[in-house]
User: Fold this.
Amino acid sequence: MNITGIIFDLKRFAVHDGPGIRTTVFFKGCPLNCWWCHNPESRKLKPERIAAGSHRHCANLAIPDDPAMVGKTVSADEIIAEIEKDLAFYDESGGGVTFSGGEPLLQPDFLTDLLRRCREREIHSAVDTSGHAPWAHFEQIYPYTDLFLFDLKLIDDRLHRRYTNVGNRLIHDNLRRLHELGAAIFIRIPLIPGISDTEENLAGIRTFLDGLPNIRQVNLLPYNPIGESKYQRFHKKNRLGRLSTQPPSRLEAIRDHFSTLPCAVKIGG
Ligand code: SF4
Assistant:
């Protein structure tokens, strides 16, 4: 069966979405609503019509692309055909494919099928997740996933609710359970000025990670104002206002905060 799903972009030669050179497939639909989301067009779990000229599209896919739409329904066959074009780059760089979003676990059967096909082809796979999904979905994809890129945003549940629209208990439980299973996990921490890069939040995340000694890597993601212009283009309200990326000295200080963890700590993806 050639299962279908909804994506809003496919990016080749990505270098910030896991190890090596990767193809990143952006699933459409996300249960969160983060104030800092770089992809506000990704949230609805369906293709949507937007103002002409302001879209992201799937130009790499060999099927017609409507310039007034964000997102489209594609088959697993089409995605795999795109992924296979860059096999040589994956092999040379230690790369592979990353399923991102949006939240890829919102389409678990489509995701599982793609992961299974990658495994059959010995293509390294990563799943970039907010962690907010039923545990059953993680259990379903776990046997076919080589690496989880798992976001930790805010350790305080009340703040997590305020800035993402959901609490963090499910996310933390899922992370602990994946860790117990022995999954390969990179933690990704988006550093949002005054929100997630506070001393209190970073100390809380650090304490949480002390209980997860087999995490492979922590990636500290500096704030990137690239998303701000998108809110204008998509006529969506930017609740964050104008913020600046952290200066290098601040990023080094944040990295020092995590330096005693028994894993690599990197600035950037
Ligand atoms: S989890 Fe990611 S895709 Fe979803 S709203 Fe937050 S930043 Fe956007």
